[in-house]
Amino acid sequence: MVRTLQVPMLPLALRGFREAHARHDGLRLSADPESLYVSAAEFVYWAATIDEQIRGRRGYANFQANHLGGQLLPGVRYVRNVKTHGLPMTMQKIVGKVYPITFPLPGFEVVWLPLDALPAPRDRTNKYTQAQADSYAQHLAGQPTRHTFRLLADGFDYLATIDGSPLSEERDAQVK
Q1: Which one is predicted more confidently, 166 or 28?
Q2: What is the reported pTM?
Q3: Which of 22, 83, 96, 129 suits 176 as a labelling partner, its CA being 20 to 30 A distant?
Q4: In degrees, to the nearest 5, what angle opens at C-alpha 81 toward C-alphas 80 and 84?
Q5: Is 106 exposed, middle or buried (0-12, 13-18, 19+ CB in 10 A)?
């Protein structure tokens, strides 16, 4: 008899998100942009999974309306939905300085492509919305991936401080 391990999705997604973020940060000074593409793609999938798990729950609407991390989540979903199997192709390597600057300075940055450089969504209106495209254009396009990921990590940390939010429930469960 084969037994499958049932793992609750939200804690697993939060762990995957944190580990992908740490990998992406650690690779930032690498000479290998392909590794950054891989960790960025993983990060996007975990962030979208977290979003799917918390959307509609207590504190989410306020988070999305009032925190930059919540405001860029629709753009992250847009990237995931439009380019699922080619997600790394939504980014490009840029040689030189990209703002905001962090030290030590890498020789290159991986940034999100402009919205008009992404392929048009297929006729799948259930998978993307204009609001997602607008969020991508406003918060991701042209920005370093590391900037997006830091804002999302900060946003999820913030949401975990709000009593009764799904992420505070996860925080409280870890303390017990």
Answers
A1: 166
A2: 0.78
A3: 22
A4: 65
A5: buried
Report d(CA 117, CA 46) in Å as an integer.
Answer: 24
Do the Cβ atoms of 80 and 45 come closer than 8 Å? yes
CA-closest candidate to residue 45, choices 68, 66, 24, 31? 24
Distance CA 44, CA 136 (A): 13
The contacts found for 27-34 with CB under 8 angstroms, 24 or more apart, are 28/102, 28/106, 28/146, 29/104, 29/106, 31/107, 33/93, 33/108, 33/110, 34/88
Poorest-pLDDT segment among 29-38, 111-120, 121-130, 148-157: 121-130
> Shortest CA distance to 12 belongs to which of 153, 163, 168, 170?
170
Burial class (CB in 10 A: 0-12, 13-18, 19+), 130: exposed
Given a contact cutoff of 8 angstroms between Cβ atoms, the answer to whether 112 and 151 are in contact is: no
Q: Are 151 and 9 in contact (CB under 8 A)?
A: no
Residues 113 and 163: beta-carbon distance below 8 Å: no
What SS3 state is found at 94?
strand
Residue written as token pair 């690498």: 30
- The band of 175, judged by pLDDT with boundaries at 50, 70 and 90, is very low
Give the integer Cα–Cα distance in Å for 23 and 40. Answer: 9
| Residues 87, 41 contacting (CB under 8 angstroms) | yes
